[in-house]
């Protein structure tokens, strides 16, 4: 009986040890895994509530690959070509119509001379491709352009209707800044600067987004604070001076 009691006691002790070891291991594993609350609290802030990668935000595909320098040769070629055109038109003061005419003159002269010289030197004539613009692609581009223009006109109409003061002030500030920039340089230079920024800012942001986002968050918080002060001191005083019946009459109209 004593031996049986000792064996049962040792058996129970082994079971208790195994349960204790299992509890300690499960508690360690639970400590290693972050809880859902911690995951939510440690979620990083992204501008404009962005959750997708930069590549997806830019639309994905080949255009995004070019903007993010996935293929450095193609991206460098595009940026180099744009730079060459800007130097040609802006610094050398070359005109677009003149450039197109000169290129066509050179191409036609080379092909004409090659076609006639091939008869005397016993070589094959140049294979000139039959280039045609697909009607489908032209309609798609025209449809997309029409949609964007109509969307812009709708936004301008909403701003001019006087329903949203924030949009109105944002549009006025944006147009004012754009007019200042336009007084510094012409449209071609402005377009080239935008093109260069489009090929440099996204790739820099993608590489250093963890360092840039905290500064952007602080800047956005500061902008909101300054707007709140401006809204408190200026906008409310201006709105208080406007007769209350003015907006009602406008809505009735």
What is the radius of gyration computed over CA atoms, rounded to a whole number of angstroms?
34 Å
The count of helical stretches stands at 11
Biggest sheet statistics: none
Q: Distance between the terminal alpha carbons, to the nearest Å?
A: 103 Å
Given as residue ranges, the uncertain stretches (5+ residues, pLDDT < 50) are 1-9, 25-41
| Structural class label | mainly alpha
Determine the mean pLDDT: 78
Shape: extended
Range of strand content: under 5%
**What is the count of β-strands?**
0
Helix content: over 70%
SSE order in H/E notation? HHHHHHHHHHH
Q: How is the secondary structure organized here?
A:
Layout (H helix, E strand, L loop, with lengths): L1 H31 L3 H6 L12 H4 L3 H7 L4 H20 L4 H22 L17 H26 L4 H20 L2 H12 L2 H41 L3 H8 L1
What would you say about this model in short?
This protein has eleven helices and no strands. The chain is mostly helical. The N terminus is likely disordered.
Care to describe what's here?
The protein starts with a helix and ends with a helix. It has 253 residues and is mainly alpha-helical. It contains eleven helices and no strands. It is 78% helix and 0% strand. Helix 5 (72-91) packs antiparallel against helix 9. It has helices spanning 2-32, 36-41, 54-57, 61-67, 72-91, 96-117, 135-160, 165-184, 187-198, 201-241, 245-252. The longest helix has 41 residues, at 201-241.
């Amino acid at each position: 009986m004593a031996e049986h009691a000792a064996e049962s006691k040792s058996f129970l002790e082994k079971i208790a040890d195994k349960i204790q070891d299992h509890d300690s291991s499960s508690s360690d594993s639970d400590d290693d895994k972050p809880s859902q609350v911690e995951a939510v609290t440690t979620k990083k802030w992204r501008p404009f509530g962005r959750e997708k990668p930069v590549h997806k935000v830019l639309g994905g595909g080949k255009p995004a690959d070019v903007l993010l320098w996935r293929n450095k040769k193609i991206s460098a070629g595009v940026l180099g070509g744009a730079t060459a055109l800007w130097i040609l038109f802006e610094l050398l003061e070359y005109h677009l119509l003149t450039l197109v005419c000169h290129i066509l003159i050179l191409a036609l002269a080379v092909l004409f001379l090659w076609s006639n010289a091939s008869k005397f030197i016993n070589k094959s004539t140049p294979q000139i491709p039959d280039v045609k613009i697909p009607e489908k692609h032209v309609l798609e581009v025209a449809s997309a352009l029409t949609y964007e223009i109509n969307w812009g006109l709708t936004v301008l109409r909403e701003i001019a209707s006087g329903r949203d003061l924030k949009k109105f002030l944002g549009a006025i500030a944006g147009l004012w800044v754009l007019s200042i920039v336009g007084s510094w340089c012409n449209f071609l230079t402005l377009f080239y600067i935008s093109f260069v920024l489009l090929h440099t800012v996204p790739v820099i942001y993608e590489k250093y987004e963890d360092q840039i986002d905290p500064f952007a968050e602080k800047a956005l918080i500061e902008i909101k604070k300054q707007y709140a002060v401006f809204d408190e001191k200026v906008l409310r005083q201006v709105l208080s001076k406007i007769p209350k019946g003015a907006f009602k009459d406008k809505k009735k109209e």
